[in-house]
Amino acid sequence: MKTILVPTDFSQNAYNALFYATRLFKDQECKFYLLNTFEVDTPILTSRIDTTKGNVLYTRLSCASKDGLAETLHAITRDCEDYNHSFETLSISKKLVETVQNTIKRKKIDLVVMGTQGATRAKEYLLGSNTIRVVQGNTLCPTLMIPSEYVFTNPKDIAFSTDLRRFYGKDEIAPITRLLEMFKAELHILHIRETGKLDEIQQYNYDKLLEHLGDVEVSVHWLEKQKEKSESISNYIREYNIRMLFMVNYKHSFIERMTRESVIRKIGLHVEIPFMVIPGLS
């Protein structure tokens, strides 16, 4: 059984991400954990009055969290009643990233699914700030990000962007191969050309990547470098109707640089399709 963690702030975008995940895995037995976190700021030195106020605030936030989860559970149960899915709600008073990491370990989560835009709908960001923090902090399993208002479509064309500077093991690319097999999809390997040809290391990594992918349908595309790497990827996604993008997040990788908030305001890659980030294995 596949275990999926879906953090929610009760926004429409968060629900859309949950609904997308139920559609993506509609033919699989899945256990979904619906997570809402909330925080109560309490000073280290507090008076009895402050403590009472803190307790009142905690109770109010806890009730709102549990009520929101109950409404979400009711809605998703109604909307995907025919699927072999079960749901459990988690209301936790801790920081989001810490809670996500702990829940992944405790519940043996296979995949985290989030919307790319939270309740604040900040247009200037590539991804909602909570989503960014989860991607940066999640070193245990893939994170799948779903754009606001994205309508589910079978991912028949999937792209994997790589600079081929590192070796990918079978376990790292397993999330890609599983989806390729599920939907009989074609994989578009995207490499942004920086020199005329691959060097020895890149060629080795490329050959091993194809070997690990096995018999799936693969096409390889050498993209010309534009002002921003993200722009090259975005243009390809639009031109070839790509339905899902994959990247591996490892130290000093493009996705690591891309998910820094200071860079996000400047780059051109706006997430228009589902985007899965796979943590690199040491």
TrEMBL record:
Protein family per UniProt: Belongs to the universal stress protein A family.
UspA domain boundaries: 1-146
Lineage: superkingdom: Bacteria
Organism: Aquimarina intermedia
Pfam families for the chain: Usp
Protein name: Nucleotide-binding universal stress UspA family protein
SUPFAM superfamilies assigned to the protein according to its UniProt record, in alphabetical order: Adenine nucleotide alpha hydrolases-like (SSF52402)
InterPro entries named among the record's database cross-references: Rossmann-like_a/b/a_fold, Universal_stress_UspA, UspA
